[in-house]
Structures are given as structure tokens and as C-alpha cells.
Write a structure and sequence with these properties.
20 strands; binds FE2/S2 (inorganic) cluster; four-stranded antiparallel sheet; single chain; binds fe (ii) ion; globular; nine-stranded antiparallel sheet; alpha+beta
Length: about 400
């Protein structure tokens, strides 16, 4: 053991610390940033199906403010908030059969931003109408969620399907949820999305944060320190955690952080052994906040919501400040890393191998897009087979 008690010079104090810095390439998501352009090559869920309605709804995605609505013919639309006429917000617009009508002078836009009516203009003046386009993004609906593609139109991939949500066991159906399962906290989490995404390849925190600091937050099986291996696969980083249980059986848990922001994490409650039952998508709202959408195979309505963690029998928002301090969970750990974690101050060690692998994988995708190529996992084949993940909780005889 090195003697750490006698440092005659008292070096290593906090005095004169270097200004900390984060890696902007992997964290910043705005238009024109490197990660922002990578993420704009994929579809992202931006709301539950019911969020697109005849009441215009403000959404913020990858640093862009947008308005989500559904015209009265049932088509969902996502448009830039400021009206192409003189900028009043379509948040105050009225949804009609054909689209959304601006409250200020009544211009009507369809879900693709075409200007259909300018009621204050004389018939002759309306000749410019065909050239006016309210900026819009394509949307689709799948798995109970509304998805958008915010990238270059000529690079629009097909909206992927996933075997975990396509192949249902008897009695199962698909349900979506936006109440932040896995985030542990409120629906909008005030820190950079990468802090959460990296957490997916960090199985050791499960034992310390969720198994020791918070008491047994999940199940006793998860409190045992696992033997972990990581593998970079085409679509992400796979984590395999092996635990030998007291009855001699071997518990093999495989999870994956998949491109672009997918959480392919089997339930930590190990309620059922078998293949992964849900997929989560981390949606970067901007550089300093994110939220999570989840779709899963369930047997009862509300099952995903009921899976939310409780500490002291309480949901995160019911805890007192003292309980938050004494029983920290994912929210406390990840948000306290900073608005954006200071990568220059980190000391990555053996148990962070998955984090290093995930950062390398992301950097590689960023480089591909910057070089004009397609990142991993985008497909332009409308008949592409559903994506299969190995993830699950498996119980095996030793
Ligand atoms: S600002 Fe929207 S119609 Fe005039
Ligand atoms: Fe966690």
C-alpha cells in the first residue's frame, strides 16, 4: 500500500485547478454540430401518439423549438413555430381539417408546410402562395409514439422496426410511456444526454448506486458484483454481466446501448427471465436536457409506468431533499456530473471500458457523417427486416 498520509508539499490540492472542459463533439446536439448532424440522420420519437392532437403542443428536439399537432383528417404534423408570414407562433394556431391556421392573419399550413390559404390577400396577390413553405419535418407513427426525421431530406432512412416490439408472446401488446423509466427522475432531466447514454454500459453502478447507497433498489440478485465483458457490435456496445447466484445458478444479463440513442436494457427487476421486453430512446432536448421514451411488450395497461423505481416506497418526485441526499439514484448521480460532464477531469479506469468503447463508436459515426458517408444502422430498404438484439436476462444451470 502506498503511504498516502505524508505528502510534505501537500500537492494535489484544488488550488490552481485547470479550467475543466467537455468534449463538444460527442455532446452538443444543435443543428450544424458534429453530433447534431449524426443524430439528424436517424428517426427519433418526440411524443406519444396522443401528444399529436388538435391542441398544438410545444416540443423541443436537438435544440430546435417546434410545434406538434394533428390535423382533423388525422395526420400528425411538426412545424417550425414562427409563421412564415410575420412570425407569430403557431402554438396559438387553430387546427383544422387541412392543417394549422396562424392566429395573426389566418394563413393555413398543411402538415408538410404548404401554404393553403391567405385569407387577407386579394385573389391576385395569392400567386406567391405556392412558393411559401412553413419549415416542417416529416413525422411517422409507430409503437404508440410519434417519430421525426430532422436530417437532410435526401438521406431520410426508413423508420426501423425492432424484433423486441414486433414479435409478441401470447397475451402481450405494445405500450409506450414517457414518464422517464430508467431516468429515475422527472420526465425532463436537466443534464446532457450522453451522461445517461453512457450509464447504459456501466453495469457496476447498479451494484453501488442501486444496490448499496439506495438499499436494494431492484432485486437482491442485482446486488452481487458481476463479471463483465463488453463487445462493440455493429449497432452499439453490448454489456454482458454474469452473476453466480447463491443457489448455484448463473444469471447472465445482456444489455445494449444501440445507435443512435437506444436503451436496450432488460428489466433490472428480473421479473421474468427471457429476451428484453422494452426499448427506450434517449431524446436530447438540447445540450443541457434530455427525456426518455419507452415502448415495451406488456400484458396490462400501465405496466411500464408501474415499473418506475421507488425509494423508501416513494417515487422520485415524492422524496424530500434529505431522502434525495441519503438515497441517491440515477438522477442524482447523472445530473450531479454537471450540465455537461467535464471530460477533462475524468479518470477512466478498467470498469469504464464500456464507456470508452461507446465514445469510440460514436466518434466513428460522427467521422463517417462528416466524411459524407452513412452512419451504422440507417437503412433505405423499406423491406428491411426488424432489428434483433441479444439483450435479456437469462438464468442458466452452472
Ligand atoms: S404572422 Fe401568421 S398569418 Fe401573419
Ligand atoms: Fe442506473
Amino acid at each position: 500500500m502506498p503511504d498516502t498520509t505524508t505528502d510534505p508539499l501537500d500537492t494535489g490540492t484544488a488550488y490552481g485547478r485547470k479550467q475543466p472542459a467537455y468534449n463538444p463533439i460527442l455532446t452538443e446536439v444543435g443543428a450544424g454540430t458534429l453530433m447534431g448532424e449524426l443524430l439528424r440522420r436517424y428517426w427519433h420519437p418526440i411524443g406519444l401518439t396522443r401528444d399529436a392532437s388538435d391542441t398544438p403542443r410545444k416540443v423541443r428536439v436537438l435544440g430546435e423549438d417546434l410545434i406538434l399537432f394533428r390535423d382533423r383528417a388525422g395526420r400528425p404534423g411538426l412545424v417550425h413555430p414562427h409563421c412564415a408570414h410575420r412570425g407569430a407562433s403557431l402554438y396559438y394556431g387553430r387546427v383544422e381539417e387541412q392543417g394549422i391556421r396562424c392566429c395573426y392573419h389566418g394563413w393555413l399550413f398543411d402538415v408538410q408546410g404548404h401554404c393553403l390559404e391567405q385569407p387577407c390577400e386579394p385573389e391576385a396577390g395569392q400567386r406567391t402562395r405556392g412558393r411559401i413553405r412553413q419549415p416542417w419535418y416529416p413525422v411517422q407513427e409507430l409503437y404508440g409514439m410519434v417519430w421525426t426525421y430532422m436530417g437532410p431530406p435526401e438521406k431520410k432512412p426508413v423508420l426501423p422496426r425492432y424484433a423486441a416490439l414486433e414479435v409478441l408472446d401470447k397475451g402481450e401488446f405494445i405500450e409506450a410511456d414517457d414518464s422517464s423509466i430508467g431516468g429515475g427522475g422527472p420526465p425532463v432531466i436537466p443534464c446532457n444526454w450522453l451522461q445517461h447514454y453512457e450509464n447504459l454500459v456501466d453495469p457496476f453502478h447498479v451494484v453501488i448506486l442501486h444496490g448499496s447507497f439506495s438499499g436494494t433498489q431492484f432485486v437482491k440478485e442485482m446486488d452481487v458484483l458481476p463479471v463483465v465483458t463488453w463487445d462493440t457490435v455493429e449497432l452499439g456496445v453490448c454489456t454482458t454481466s454474469i452473476r453466480r447466484l447463491s443457489d448455484g445458478k448463473v444469471f447472465r444479463r445482456i444489455s445494449q446501448a444501440a445507435l443512435p440513442t437506444l436503451r436496450v436494457i432488460p428489466s433490472p427487476r428480473v421479473g421474468r427471465y427471457g429476451r428484453v421486453e422494452s426499448i427506450g430512446w434517449v431524446l436530447p432536448i438540447d445540450d443541457h436536457s434530455f427525456r426518455i421514451y419507452v415502448a415495451g411488450r406488456v400484458r396490462e395497461h400501465g405496466e411500464l409506468v408501474r415499473m418506475r423505481s421507488r425509494l423508501n416506497g416513494k417515487l422520485w418526485e415524492e422524496l424530500t431533499e434529505e431522502e434525495h441526499r441519503r438515497l441517491p439514484g440515477d438522477y442524482e448521480a447523472q445530473v450531479s456530473q454537471g450540465k455537461i460532464a467535464c471530460h477533462s477531469d475524468e479518470h477512466l479506469v478498467t470498469s469504464d471500458k464500456g464507456v470508452a468503447m461507446l465514445r469510440r463508436l460514436l466518434q466513428k459515426q460522427v467521422d463517417l457523417v462528416r466524411d459524407g458517408k452513412d452512419p451504422a444502422g440507417v437503412s433505405f430498404d423499406p423491406d428491411a427486416a426488424p432489428v434483433v438484439f441479444d439483450a435479456g436476462n437469462f438464468l442458466e444451470d452452472a
